[in-house]
């Protein structure tokens, strides 16, 4: 411990590389039977967050943080909702600002380091509900937000939060950002940039004096986008400053509860520094599992409705491993 051998049995035969393991579930996987009740809460800076609840009358709660340009309707969120609900655990999926179908009010959007909004969600839940235990999980970007939050809180983490788990998580954001420059990742780069550019166009309608749409048209890569838009809107010098400043591994050494990190070794969006081997070897709270296969937010299993990662989360969080 706490680097453990993986139990992932490998993906279905037709998903024969990391790209297919990533893309096919993202495009084709459907989870039926999940119905949310939405709650809108205010943030300290006079914005709002949309929270999507799926309650079954449980005494325990799972809080899910979604990935980049995701929301509560993504397959990886709904799979966890359905599985944990079946095990009598309430679930809350919070939507980052501008995600979940409604543009936020402030000039800022969201990013990998937006743990302040996760903190707002958790404070709201604790003040309005009486759960005996809360679990935190995050997928991809949401995993980074979760790890950063846990490290920032350290020994001051609310006692009701007992365990956490993340997967496909860019623990080191500069390393992950570098992978998007690779030719083999052109599909992901174009897909994410296309969605984010639409967000910036919508934000420009709210704040026309703040956004340069002529510059946006010229942006072809994440370094340029994050320098001219993400960094500018959120108060960083440029993309490099932003990536380093918000990277979760700045805080992970201070995590004080058992936290499972699952990152597949063939994840096309994770660089080598996203696998915190040295930290896991020296820190008992960090449990690192590195399956050889799984892709990015994949981990499909033949004949199963739920992914291996979803079952793994359930077991880790509830079985006192």
Could you tell me how far the N terminus lies from the C terminus, measured between alpha carbons in angstroms?
12 Å
Categorize the overall geometry.
globular
Question: Averaging pLDDT over every residue, what do you get?
Answer: 96
* β-sheet strand percentage: 15-25%
Radius of gyration: 19 Å
The major sheet is characterized as:
9 strands, mixed
* Helical coverage, percent range: 25-40%
Q: How many DSSP H or I helices?
A: 11
Helix/strand class: alpha/beta
Low-confidence stretches: none
The count of β-strands is 9
Series of secondary-structure elements, N-terminal to C-terminal: EHEEEHEHEHEHHHHHEHEH
Widest β-sheet, arrangement of strands = 1-9-8-7-6-4-5-3-2
Describe this structure in words.
This protein is α/β, with parallel strands linked by helices. It contains eleven helices and nine strands. The protein has helices spanning about 20-30, 75-85, 115-130, 140-155, 175-180, 185-205, 215-220, 220-235, 240-245, 275-280, 310-320, and strands at about 5, 35-40, 50-55, 60-65, 90-95, 135-140, 160-165, 260, 285-290. It has a nine-stranded mixed β-sheet, sandwiched between helices. β2 and β3 (about 50-55) form a beta hairpin. The chain starts with a strand and ends with a helix. The mean pLDDT is about 95.
């Amino acid at each position: 411990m706490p680097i453990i051998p993986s139990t992932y049995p490998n993906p279905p035969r037709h998903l024969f590389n990391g790209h297919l393991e990533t893309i096919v579930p993202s495009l084709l996987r459907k989870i039926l039977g999940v119905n949310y009740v939405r709650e809108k809460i205010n943030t300290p800076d006079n914005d709002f967050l949309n929270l999507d609840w799926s309650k079954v009358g449980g005494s325990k709660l799972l809080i899910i943080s979604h990935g980049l340009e995701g929301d509560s309707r993504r397959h990886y969120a709904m799979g966890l909702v359905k599985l944990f609900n079946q095990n009598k655990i309430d679930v809350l999926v919070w939507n980052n600002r501008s995600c979940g179908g409604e543009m936020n009010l402030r000039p800022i959007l969201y990013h990998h380091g937006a743990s302040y909004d996760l903190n707002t969600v958790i404070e709201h839940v604790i003040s309005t509900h009486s759960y005996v235990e809360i679990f935190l999980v995050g997928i991809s970007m949401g995993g980074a937000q979760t790890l950063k939050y846990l490290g920032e809180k350290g020994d001051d983490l609310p006692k009701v939060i007992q365990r956490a788990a993340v997967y496909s998580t860019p623990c080191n954001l500069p390393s992950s950002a570098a992978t998007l420059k690779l030719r083999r990742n052109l599909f992901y780069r174009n897909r994410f940039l296309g969605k984010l550019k639409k967000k910036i166009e919508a934000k420009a309608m709210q704040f026309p004096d703040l956004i340069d749409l002529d510059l946006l048209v010229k942006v072809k890569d994440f370094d340029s986008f994050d320098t001219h838009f993400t960094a500018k809107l959120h108060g960083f010098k440029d993309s490099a400053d932003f990536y380093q400043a918000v990277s979760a591994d700045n805080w992970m050494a201070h995590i004080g509860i058992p936290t499972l990190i699952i990152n597949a070794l063939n994840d096309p969006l994770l660089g080598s520094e996203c696998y915190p081997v040295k930290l896991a070897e020296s820190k008992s709270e960090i449990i690192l599992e590195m399956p050889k296969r799984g892709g990015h937010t994949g981990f499909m299993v033949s004949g199963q409705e739920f992914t291996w990662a979803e079952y793994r989360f359930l077991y880790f969080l509830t079985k006192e491993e």
